[in-house]
Amino acid sequence: MNEPQMVEAPPAPDTTNQPATLYKHHIVYPSVLDTARSLLSVIVIALFVLTFIVQPFRIPSESMERTLLVGDFLLVNKTIYAPPGIWKWLLPYRQIQRGDIVVFHFPLDPPDHVVKRVIAVPGDRVHLHDGQVYINGQPITEPYAVYETSYSDNFRDQFPTMLYTDPGVDTGWWAEMHHDVQQGELIVPPNHYFVLGDNRNHSRDSRYWGFVPGPNVVGRPFIIYFSIRKPSTTDVPDLPGDRLGHDKDPVNSVVDFARWDRMFRIVR
């Protein structure tokens, strides 16, 4: 029999000096239909959020200074006061409470939106003495309230009063108010709220036009996402000084355009 013979394997090819294999990357661009679908999805989600969850607003007046300034842009939570449903595990719901800042449809002109602070809830007895707010016979602490210099107004500061001393009072509210006053205190009826502006001497609020019905409440502002620097008509003008100015400096114009320190500030 022939003995098996060992056969040497051929040497491996030398690849040290051979160029590496080039891999081409192919960029796949989305089709027009894919782009349209993505854009439509973004639009639908944005419309859903702006319709049912949050809504942007801009502050036009000084009535809520110094909490909210003229030129502040707010996002309002529209779900917080909604009746709890199947989404209550995801979106928090609660009742309107004293001290809440709320956005609501103005009772005298429902298309308009107004922002004020809730001072009294249904069943509360409220009155003001020398501008101090009393709820159920007790004075309340209001660190948010400011009292800028203004003319004397007994209707504003001694509320409710039976004397018609301010032409800015709505006549319908003046007639209605007498039915809700007992022993010098205004009784807040069911499903209604008494609201005031934080800038007490420069705010047209429940003292002048009445209660806010519960269904009128849109939601609660929760954040200032931007703020344009605008002057307040209630500010005392600064006296002229000797400091050199740079009003025409483009850099300063950009920096002073907005109140950057108020961006993303939580509203309380």
Describe it for me?
With 268 residues, the chain is of the alpha+beta class. The chain has one domain (49-233, 259-266): Umud Fragment, subunit A (Ribbon). 17% of the residues lie in helices and 24% in strands. It has 5 helices and 13 strands. It has helices at 32-53, 154-157, 171-180, 206-209, 250-255; strands spanning 54-58, 72-77, 101-106, 109-120, 125-129, 132-135, 138-139, 181-182, 185-187, 192-196, 212-213, 217-227, 265-266. The strands form 2 sheets. Strands 1, 2, 3, 4, 10, 11, 12 and 13 form an 8-stranded antiparallel beta sheet that branches. Strands 7-6-5-9-8 form a 5-stranded antiparallel beta sheet. A hairpin with a 2-residue loop joins strand 6 (132-135) and strand 7. The N and C termini lie far apart (103 Å). The model has no long low-confidence stretch (mean pLDDT 82).
**Broad structural category:** alpha+beta
Outline, from the CA principal axes?
A: globular
In total, how many domains does the architecture comprise? 1
Name given to the CATH homologous superfamily: Umud Fragment, subunit A
Largest sheet: 8 strands, antiparallel
Q: So how many helices?
A: 5
Q: Which CATH-level-2 architecture?
A: Ribbon
What is the CATH topology classification name?
A: Umud Fragment, subunit A
- What are the segments in which pLDDT stays under 50 over at least 5 consecutive residues? none
Radius of gyration, in angstroms, nearest whole number = 32 Å
The SSE string, one letter per element, is HEEEEEEEHHEEEHEEHE
Name of the CATH class: Mainly Beta
Oligomer: single chain
In angstroms, what separates the terminal alpha carbons? 103 Å
Number of strands: 13
